[in-house]
């Protein structure tokens, strides 16, 4: 018992002076006084609490209104109490404010500052890419076609990175669904609201939709092969396609905003690769994939194919969670 003794020093400078009384003799008889030391498992509670209980403790009647209770907290088991108090106050919103500012600036740029010299041509390109126009003899730019279809694969990559290990109190799936239409402009609010650590995923959840599909190597392989095929299709086009695409980029709002979307998705991907890698405790073996993830689309897709299954690293089993007495 000596090892668990904590010394608590309190200064009762404002405690009122008790006058001698016959009834005050009960103060010198702490027969029922018990000290109970509780250790809380929750990180939001103090590590030690001293609970005082005395059923026969009675103050004199003329002193009840003057009693002041002092709450004493032990810091012997907390080497840095100031740091704990700061963490309990709340999260740091600096990165969230910066991401919201970036999101607002991007929206303002896209709606007000982006080039918009060919609105009619943009509508025509959109109908052609959506197969709403038949073959009219016009040859679409291969780089534009490859960019359009690869933008439909980016949400799949981010779903495989965010839903298992990038979840937060804010649900991620609505932002991922809207990213099929809005790209990074729909994902940035979630990036700003994301607050680690992510909740754990159980074995039963991994065997159900959508985790069973997002964790599948087949999904990762198909995504990588499809993206590689689209990139090769764009690169092997005519020599004049790049010059034509650059001209579109300078004049067309549709192509300009889409190209910016692709660049931003590629820029944010390495961070989420790192987050997923550390959550799976695979950083020591998979750190070489971090510089590879900088390669647009192909790097994150390759990581998704090579990463270990979440059930083999961090996912707790249902039997273990049910046998935990704290739950």
Automatic annotation (TrEMBL):
Which keywords appear in this protein's UniProt record, sorted alphabetically? Membrane, Transmembrane, Transmembrane helix
Q: Does Mitochondrion show up as a keyword for this record?
A: no
So which domain of life are we looking at? Eukaryota
Segments traversing the membrane: 93-114, 143-163, 175-194, 214-236, 257-274, 286-306
- Write down what this protein is called: Cardiolipin synthase N-terminal domain-containing protein
Origin organism lineage: Eukaryota, Viridiplantae, Streptophyta, Embryophyta, Tracheophyta
């Amino acid at each position: 018992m000596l090892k668990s003794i904590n010394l608590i020093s309190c200064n009762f400078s404002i405690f009122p002076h008790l006058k001698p009384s016959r009834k005050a003799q009960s103060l010198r008889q702490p027969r029922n006084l018990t000290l109970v030391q509780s250790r809380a498992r929750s990180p939001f509670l103090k590590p030690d609490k001293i609970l005082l209980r005395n059923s026969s403790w009675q103050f004199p009647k003329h002193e009840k209104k003057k009693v002041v209770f002092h709450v004493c907290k032990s810091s012997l088991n907390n080497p840095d109490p100031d740091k704990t108090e700061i963490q309990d106050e709340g999260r740091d919103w600096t990165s969230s404010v910066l991401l919201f500012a970036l999101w607002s600036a991007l929206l303002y740029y896209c709606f007000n500052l982006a080039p918009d010299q060919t609105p009619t041509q943009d509508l025509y390109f959109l109908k052609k890419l959506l197969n709403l126009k038949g073959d009219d003899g016009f040859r679409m730019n291969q780089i534009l076609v490859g960019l359009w279809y690869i933008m439909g694969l980016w949400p799949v990559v981010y779903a495989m990175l965010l839903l298992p290990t990038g979840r937060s109190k804010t649900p991620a799936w609505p932002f991922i669904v809207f990213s099929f239409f809005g790209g990074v402009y729909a994902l940035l609010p979630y990036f700003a609201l994301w607050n680690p650590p992510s909740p754990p995923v159980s074995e039963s959840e991994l065997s159900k939709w959508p985790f069973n599909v997002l964790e599948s190597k087949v999904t990762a392989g198909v995504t990588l092969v499809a993206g590689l095929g689209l990139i090769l299709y764009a690169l092997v086009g005519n020599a004049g396609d790049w010059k034509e695409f650059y001209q579109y980029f300078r004049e067309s709002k549709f192509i300009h905003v889409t190209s910016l979307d692709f660049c931003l998705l590629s820029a944010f991907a390495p961070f989420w690769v790192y987050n997923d890698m550390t959550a799976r405790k695979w950083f020591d073996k998979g750190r070489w994939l971090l510089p590879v993830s900088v390669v647009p689309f192909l790097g994150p897709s390759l990581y998704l194919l090579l990463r270990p299954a979440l059930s083999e690293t961090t996912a707790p089993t249902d039997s273990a969670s049910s046998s935990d007495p704290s739950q």
